[in-house]
Amino acid sequence: MTEDINNENVPEENTPKNPTESNSVSEEQTEQATDANPTAAPVLEQAVEGENANQEISQQAPVPPTEPVAPQGQQTAFEQQVASPFTNPVNPTVPTVAARKELIVLPIISFVVSVITLILAWFAPLPIIYVIIAFLGLIYAIVGLIVNIQRKKVLSIIALVLASLVFLVSGLAVFVRQAQNNPDPTEQTESKKSDEKDDTDVDDDDSEDSTDVKDYIADSSDFKFKWTKSKFTDLKFSSYSSKNGDSLKSIIKKFGKGSNASISGESLNLEYRKSGDDDERESVRLTFRKQYNGKFILSDGYAYFTSKNIKTVSEKSYKSDWTQADVDALTVGDSSTGKGGVNLNEVLKKHGNPTEARESISNYGDGFKTSLKILYNSYDSNDSSKLGYVSLEFAQQSNDDYLLTYKYPKK
């Protein structure tokens, strides 16, 4: 009895010793639960399947290797510092500063001024003015270089070099053109000394001057035109208050006999004209007055010389664009001074270079005056609406400008 009681009091072990038994029990329990609640069957099946799957994955999944730990004080490849694109590769601690863009306004102004000056200094009148302009271009280039000292300065350097060259070339142009217009100073000095000696020899001659014009006209084979602008302006003219003009004999001794001569009363006219020149492009005409001692002294005169300051074109290539309305629109100034007249530069700008340009220098006892005569000659023009011949005269001003004093044809 005692054993029976003990057997009744000892509970059965719930934990199965065999896993298969546990699975069978679970299946039986599942079936019982399914029979009791049919709707819970799918849920229970999914739970069982998920549990089994987790057990399989946990058994199959490999254990990831542990990441090695870098020793203290060292950096891994991912922790190394990446160089900045703005870091100086030579000295990483110094940042690289990109050069700023160049300011090109001043270099461009210097370029333009230099090119224009270079052209005008060789062809336009008064080249000394363009030397001054070239100097201003050089200043622009220097200022441009200073402004761009902390920037890119390629254009500034080129502008400085160009402006320097233009300044030197402009100065050379002034020197060359003055040498062309003026004779050698040494020759002038020697000629002046020779003339003074000739004057002394002539003054020693107390005889009266001849009144026969043949004595003052040279043979065509012996005539030579020796005149220049400077030689004409070196002449001494008498006036109402002074009788110290050059004598007729001194002129004959310096320049030879003339190409033509005439006497009218107490006046003698002596003319020098280049051989074959019928239009007075190169000519000198002098008037002498007879004094109480029978000698002729220079009283007045004028000369024509081809202008070297105005560029001309040939008559064959010139095509007139002048109309009578154009000539009528020109304002004529004072006949002596040109004051109020149109400027020569305006005429040249509108109608271009003339076919002929010659300077006239005159002295009527009141000092030398210079004027300019230009001709537009296009007789071969077939356009009846255009003028074939236009003649204009200008008076030179103190600033070397020319103002209109005469025009032809008139309305």
Automatic annotation (TrEMBL):
Residues of the region (Disordered) are 1-75, 182-213
User: Which spans does this entry mark as compositional bias, Polar residues?
Assistant: 16-37, 52-61
Acidic residues composition-biased segments: 197-210
| Organism lineage | Bacteria, Bacillati, Bacillota, Bacilli, Lactobacillales
What residue ranges are annotated as transmembrane?
A: 103-122, 128-147, 154-176
Question: What keywords sit in the KW lines?
Answer: Membrane, Transmembrane, Transmembrane helix
Please give the name of this protein: CD20-like domain protein
